[in-house]
Amino acid sequence: MNAGIVIIGSGFAARQLVKNIRKQDANVPVTLIAADSMDEYNKPDLSHVISLNQRAGDLTRQSAGEFAEQFNLSLHPYTRVTDIDAGAQVVKSADKTWHYDKLVLATGAAAFVPPVPGHELMLTLNSQQAYQACEGELRDAQRVLIVGAGLIGTELAMDFCRAGKAVTLIDTAASLLPSLMPPEVSSRLQHRITEMGVHLLLNSQLLSLEKTSTDIRATVNGNRHVEVDVVIAATGLRPETALARQAGVTIHRGVAVNRYLQTSDANIYALGDCAEIDGQLLPFLQPIQLSAMTLAKNLTGSNAPLTLPPMLVKVKTPALPLHLAGETARGDLHWQIETRPDGMLAKGFDGEQLRAFVVSEDRMKEAFGLLKQLSV
Predict the structure, then answer these.
(1) Cβ-count burial of 142 within 10 angstroms (0-12 exposed, 13-18 middle, 19+ buried)?
(2) CA angle in degrees (0–180, nearest 5) for 290-294-296
(3) Which residues contact 325 (CB under 8 A, 6 or more apart)?
(4) CA–CA distance from 84 to each of 197, 289, 373 (Å)?
(5) Which helix (H) or strand (E) holds 121?
(6) Is the pTM of this model over 0.90?
(7) Which CA distances in Å does 47 have to 131, 155, 234, 244?
(8) In 25-73, which residue ranges form alpha helices assigned H by DSSP?
(9) Taking CA 178 as the corner, what is the angle to CA 176 and CA 183, rounded to the nearest 5 degrees?
(10) What is the pLDDT of residues 223-239, one digit of tens each?
(11) Strand, helix or coil at 138?
(12) Is the CB of residue 99 less than 8 Å from the CB of residue 93?
């Protein structure tokens, strides 16, 4: 009997893969196993839940049962995989065993919580489940400390501020979005977010958190203190690699895969936030969509390498939305920045070659023309 395809995970990557597999083959057995409910929601919506006054349940788009019926799946929600025996091609939970022909790890990534004293007081917003666990606390909070001024931290800071809360955003870096763009490019966003009322503590380090009788006391370097109601960790994601390690496949920062999304074991693949593709972590929607399309073909008989064109990354900061593409984090690019009332256009050059760009507000419509000019 054909054991078929077993997928561990239920997030965007796993769902995109299922949909693409069914475009290729309506009948191959597909089993989906995950520790959560498997209800479908749009993870980027978590950046706006507070200002839109949404409950966790409001994010659900399709129930697990409806998804299983629509795509002819064997579904196992609330099931934690305990072991993978790669030699026998078997996946195990506490009380079940599944055989596979091909196994896909779509285990995602976990929010990193800085290991400071009192770190257990920090909340994370990396999933619908995580939001559900603390939504009442977040709604009631008036003073919010967000640790990390990267993509998620900046989006959350703007959203909490739009909801009327007093927001402090702290980072050891000297500017917003430090891993995505240089300070001269992010300065327009920094000005806008400060103008909104967000208190920025850049070049600052959180040293400890302490619960008092009325609130949480955050100690920052320079012997400064901030009293808040909640603290949110937005200091990045770490690929979930524990199951891959059990399966004995190669791991670097994430689960190492080649351009065919194949691990060091020919029958095991990885996809999404947990996967490291040719040395790169690409936790953005477009590369995951393209990876899912490629992997679906490879799981159903093709042998197609993944090719990634220059892709847009969208920063969901409504008061100053941004699109960026290319090697925006490169420190050796020469930037030409043009600011106008309708937005900013920043181009990063390596000699004569356009290697990166960032556009904001009404100038975002120029992004698609610029994508075609990018040197890859």
Answers:
(1) exposed
(2) 115
(3) 310, 311, 312, 313, 356, 357, 367, 370, 371, 374
(4) 50, 26, 45
(5) none
(6) yes
(7) 11, 6, 11, 29
(8) 64-71
(9) 70
(10) 899 999 999 999 999 99
(11) helix
(12) no
Query: What does the alpha-carbon distance between residue 123 and residue 131 come to, in Å, rounded to a whole number?
Result: 9
Cross-strand bridge partners of residue 339: 344
User: Both tokens of residue 317?
Assistant: 């900061």
Q: How many residues in the chain?
A: 376
pLDDT tens profile 315-350: 999 999 999 999 999 999 999 999 999 999 999 999
DSSP assignment of 231-292, as one string? EEE-S-EEE--HHHHHHT--BSSSEEE-TTSB-SSTTEEE-GGGEEETTEE--SHHHHHHHH
Rg (CA), the chain: 22
Block residue for tokens 């990534």: 109
Cα 169-357-277 angle, rounded to 5 deg: 80
* Amino acid symbol at 240: E
How far is residue 10's CA from residue 125's CA, in Å, rounded to a whole number?
A: 17
Percent of the chain with pLDDT over 70: 99
Q: At 218, give phi and psi (nearest 5°).
A: -100, 130
Cα 141 from Cα 168, distance rounded (Å): 13
Closest by CA position to 102, among listed 29, 166, 187: 29
> SS3 of 330, please?
coil
Please say whether the beta carbons of 209 and 170 come within 8 A: no
Q: Which residue has the tokens 């599944």?
A: 98
Rounded Cα distance between 30 and 37, Å, is: 18
| Residue given tokens 């503590």 in the structure block | 201
Q: What is the pLDDT of residue 1?
A: 46
* Beta-carbon contacts of residue 353 (< 8 Å; ≥ 6 apart): 375
Upper half-sphere CA count for residue 16 (Cβ side, 13 Å): 18
